[in-house]
């Protein structure tokens, strides 16, 4: 996307000095909402269209910089079976393009670039229809020892019921906050007169380290 922006002219100004909207000047600057990772790590061998390899899979990672809570933008999306994805060929080896190309299916014959799927075109934009397999929020930690969140909840309740604080913390310590870790959950709580309240649960740095916890995932079946 940066390469496309640098090539275009700068925004024009109105007589009063205000910058004209991008659509009025013929330019539209966009920011990617995420990046796609598929089972094909290189272009060699990648099918020209999804129907050729119906078993192919990909994940679309939504960037944290787009929203403070990117998982909120995906709410309700799991109610749909397919999604349209508008994307940019940001890994093109070069930004130059030709009016005629030689697609593999024509065995060397030339044809107009707009009648092909060539990524090398004036605007390196593509459109695909993908089957939506699932929507995941990877900011949620996966457990190492528990099989579900319900098991973790019962374990936390058991710890709180036993009041794991030392005698010093119970009678002399003025800091009423108490911290402990269960599996991959770091729990912050406080104890009152005959009760305990959990204030916060967040992923612990150990024993399991999350992979980029600030992103959300779309699991896509490209069919």
From TrEMBL:
Enumerate the spans annotated as TsaA-like domain: 30-176
Q: Which Pfam families match?
A: TrmO_N
Q: Which CDD domains match?
A: UPF0066 (cd09281)
Entry annotated with the keyword RNA-binding: no
| InterPro entries according to UniProt | TrmO-like_N, UPF0066_cons_site, YaeB-like, YaeB-like_sf, YaeB_N_sf
Which SUPFAM superfamilies would you find in this protein's record? Answer: YaeB-like (SSF118196)
Record keywords, A-Z = S-adenosyl-L-methionine
Q: Which family does it belong to?
A: Belongs to the tRNA methyltransferase O family.
> Protein name, please?
tRNA methyltransferase O
Tell me which species this is from. Equus asinus
UniProt lists the gene as: TRMO
């Amino acid at each position: 996307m940066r390469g496309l922006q640098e090539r275009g002219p700068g925004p024009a100004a109105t007589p009063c000095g205000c910058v004209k909207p991008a659509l009025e000047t013929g330019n539209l600057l966009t920011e990617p909402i995420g990046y796609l990772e598929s089972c094909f790590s290189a272009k060699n061998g990648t099918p020209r269209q999804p129907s050729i390899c119906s078993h192919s899979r990909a994940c679309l990672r939504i960037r944290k910089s787009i929203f403070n809570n990117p998982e909120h933008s995906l709410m309700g999306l799991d109610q749909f079976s397919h999604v349209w994805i508008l994307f940019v060929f940001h890994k093109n080896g070069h930004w130059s393009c030709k009016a005629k190309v030689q697609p593999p299916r024509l065995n060397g014959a030339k044809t107009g670039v707009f009648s092909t799927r060539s990524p090398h075109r004036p605007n390196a934009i593509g459109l695909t229809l993908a089957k939506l397999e699932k929507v995941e929020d990877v900011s949620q930690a996966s457990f190492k020892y528990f099989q579900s969140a319900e098991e973790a909840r019962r374990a936390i309740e058991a710890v709180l019921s036993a009041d794991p604080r030392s005698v010093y913390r119970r009678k002399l310590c003025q800091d009423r906050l108490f911290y402990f870790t269960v599996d991959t959950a770091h729990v912050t709580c406080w104890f009152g007169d005959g009760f305990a309240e959990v204030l916060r649960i967040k992923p612990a740095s150990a024993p399991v380290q999350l992979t980029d916890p600030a992103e959300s995932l779309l699991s896509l079946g490209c069919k």
